[in-house]
Amino acid sequence: MGDRDAITEWAQRFSLVADPSRLALLVSIHYAREISVTDLAAATGMTDTAVSQALRLLRAHGLVTARREGRIVRYSLADATVHELIHLVRPHPESRAGTGERG
C-alpha cells in the first residue's frame, strides 16, 4: 500500500484542498502568482477575515508562502504538487482557446 506516513501526508493535503473556499484561494493565487489578502477577498467573494484564516491554515501546512512588501503581504503557492494539481483540475483559460469548449 505504500508508506503510511506519506499516505497520511497526502490525505492531509487533499483535505485542505477539498474545501471549496480554500481551493478557490489556491486557484486565485495560482493564476495571480502573487496576491494580497484584499485582492484575494475580492477575487473569491470572501471577507478579508475569512481569507486570512484560510491562508494561515494553508501556510501552516506549507501550501502557500507570504512575502511582505511594505504594509502589504503577498501570497504565492509554495507547493509544486498543488500547482500541478490546479493545472489538472482547472486548465489555464488559454488552453481551451479554439477547442469550442466553454470556460
CATH topology: Arc Repressor Mutant, subunit A
Overall SS class: alpha+beta
Number of strands: 3
Estimated helix fraction: 55-70%
CATH architecture: Orthogonal Bundle
Q: Gyration radius, to the nearest Å?
A: 15 Å
CATH superfamily: Winged helix-like DNA-binding domain superfamily/Winged helix DNA-binding domain
Please state the overall shape, judged from the principal axes of the Cα atoms: globular
Largest sheet: 3 strands, antiparallel
Query: Count of helices?
Result: 5
CATH class bucket = Mainly Alpha
Commentary on this structure:
Strands 1-3-2 form a three-stranded antiparallel sheet. The chain has one domain: Orthogonal Bundle (Arc Repressor Mutant, subunit A). Helices cover 56% and strands 14% of the residues. The chain contains five helices and three strands. Mean pLDDT is 87; it is low at 97-103.
Short characterization:
This protein is of the alpha+beta class and 103 residues long. It has helices at 4-17, 20-32, 37-44, 48-60, 80-89, and strands at 35-36, 64-69, 72-77.
Secondary structure: elements and pairs:
Blueprint lengths: L3 H14 L2 H13 L2 E2 H8 L3 H13 L3 E6 L2 E6 L2 H10 L14
Helix pairs in contact: 3-4
Task: Give the key terms.
103 residues; alpha+beta; Arc Repressor Mutant, subunit A; three-stranded antiparallel sheet; 5 helices; 3 strands; 56% helix; 14% strand; globular; disordered C terminus
